[in-house]
Amino acid sequence: MSVLGDLELLLKTTEPTRSATAVFANVDPAERRIALAGAANCPPVLLTQHGANFVETSLSAPLGMLSCWEAPGVELTAERGDVLVLYTEGLARRFGANLHAGQSALRRVAADAPRDVRLDPDRLCDHLLAEAGGEEPGEDDLVLLAARFE
């Protein structure tokens, strides 16, 4: 998506020695359409009535290392009641010994949360943060966003 290409250009112009991961979501809430693109980000989790699945945005490099100006994206349509969870590596690493184990554990904890918690984005975020553990600040950032579709 072009917004990540713009961020790539900005980063290469202003901070050429740095890199960053990112995810961009463009949401049409009325139609429940979601367009996602990422630059080496953790895969978002989509909670549905059937469980929780990763939404693979791309296998892109981080910003500052992209070989093209546009990161590939994916589009999907959520059902009523679905919840999209976006999170950073800092949260995933609190769930497991390594990044992939942490991502899988985060997805499992979200899927196994009581139904009333899964359907309430605020309560779901509180639940995930409580289950992640670790009161001390980690080496990486920790960002969590959950959005429910009506």
Key descriptive features of the protein:
150 residues; alpha+beta; Phosphatase 2c, domain 1; four-stranded antiparallel β-sheet; three-stranded antiparallel β-sheet; 5 helices; globular
Shape: globular
What's the CATH class, please?
Alpha Beta
How many distinct beta strands?
Answer: 7
Tell me the number of helical segments per DSSP (H or I, 4 or more residues long). 5
Structural class: alpha+beta
Mean of all residue-level pLDDT scores: 90
Number of domains: 1
Low-confidence stretches: none
Major sheet: 4 strands, antiparallel
Within the largest sheet, what's the order of strands?
Answer: 4-3-6-7
Superfamily at the CATH H level? Answer: PPM-type phosphatase domain
H and E order: HEEEEEEHHHHE
- What is the percent of helical residues? 25-40%
Q: What does this 3D model show about the protein?
A:
GO terms for molecular function: phosphatase activity. With 150 residues, the chain is an alpha+beta fold. The protein has one domain: Phosphatase 2c, domain 1, CATH 3.60.40. 33% of the residues lie in helices and 25% in strands. It is built from five helices and seven strands; from the N terminus they run H-E-E-E-E-E-E-H-H-H-H-E. The protein has helices at residues 2-14, 89-95, 99-112, 115-118, 121-132; strands at residues 22-28, 33-39, 45-48, 51-54, 73-77, 83-87, 144-148. It has a four-stranded antiparallel sheet. The chain has a three-stranded antiparallel sheet with strand order 1-2-5, with no helix packed on it. Strand 3 (45-48) and strand 4 (51-54) form a beta hairpin. The radius of gyration is 16 Å and the shape is globular.
